[in-house]
Amino acid sequence: MTAVLTRAAVTLEDVVKTYSGGVRALDGVSLSVPAGTFLAVMGPSGSGKSTLMHCAAGLDTPTSGKTFIEGTEISRLDETRRTVLRRSRVGFIFQQYNLLPSLSVSDNITLPLRLAGTAPDREWVRTLVERVGLAGRLHHRPSELSGGQQQRVAVARALVTRPAVVFADEPTGALDIRTAREVLDLLRTLVDELGQTVVMVTHDPAAAARADLALVMADGRIADTVPAPTAARLAHRLTELETE
Ligand SMILES: Nc1ncnc2c1ncn2[C@@H]1O[C@H](COP(=O)(O)OP(=O)(O)OP(=O)(O)O)[C@@H](O)[C@H]1O
To answer: pTM to 2 decimals?
Structure first.
């Protein structure tokens, strides 16, 4: 048996996704994201970023190819098992926070545990609440918080099940520059200090430059893999792809 030296949190093997109408949104994508990596996914509009994220996270199934979360082949699970695995092993952060307005901050954060049928680890919840700086806001409703605070609630919610990977879809897209930087600082800290794996789709080269590695998608394929990306290099590459 071959020893696995680096544990992959997310793996894609030759993933193709074709939508009805014949659009080949993913055209044979292979990818391995080692645990503890902060990966950014960039690319022009329509290049396949969201499709990649949805297939990798088990929100959608590939037309062909395989996807794995921590070695479990999620693409071959039926809908029910996929949902169970997703609820326990995958966290999500969205551009518009997607908090439930009628629930308190505290109940929003622990909601994934209730959905997964898992008892809260109070110590872990307390650690997360402190990390995201919301200890004084636990009984507030989302509407009583700023956008940046709401996104920090969403970050805590995404981590509450101790997922193998957090998928963040334009997590700073609705925030001003300073607040966006705070949320990116938070994601960076979670990767550096807790070893969390994060996959972030973003249009913003400055946001992607906070990642360890950036993928640049074009026409459903990985056009570039950029380690230690800089905003200038990514912006230049995107401009090239958008004008090709
Ligand atoms: N449900 C769908 N049905 C048909 N075509 C789709 C569907 N979802 C996406 N597509 C097509 O697949 C391709 C890739 O779309 P995708 O949303 O993954 O791109 P993206 O890079 O995330 O774009 P954006 O940056 O604009 O969000 C596009 O041509 C898109 O029109």
So the answer is: 0.95
Domain segments of the chain: what residues? 8-243
Residues 6+ apart with CB under 8 A from 101: 141, 142, 143
Sign for the pseudo-dihedral over CA of 171, 141, 112, 155: positive
Residue owning the nearest CA to atom 18 of ligand 1: 48
Going by their DSSP bridges, the two strands 24-34 and 165-169 should be labelled as unpaired
Q: What is the CA(123)–ligand 1 centre distance, in A?
A: 40
Distance CA 111, CA 154 (A): 11
Mean pLDDT by 10 residues, the chain (244 residues): 68 96 95 97 96 96 97 94 94 95 96 91 92 93 96 96 96 93 94 96 96 97 96 94 84
Candidates 17, 19, 217: which one to mutate for ligand 1, based on the most atoms within 8 Å of Cβ?
Answer: 19
Q: Ligand 1: which residue has its CA nearest to atom 28?
A: 46
CATH class of 8-243: alpha beta
ipTM: 0.97
- List ligand 1's pocket residues with C-beta within 6 A: 19, 21, 23, 25, 43, 45-51
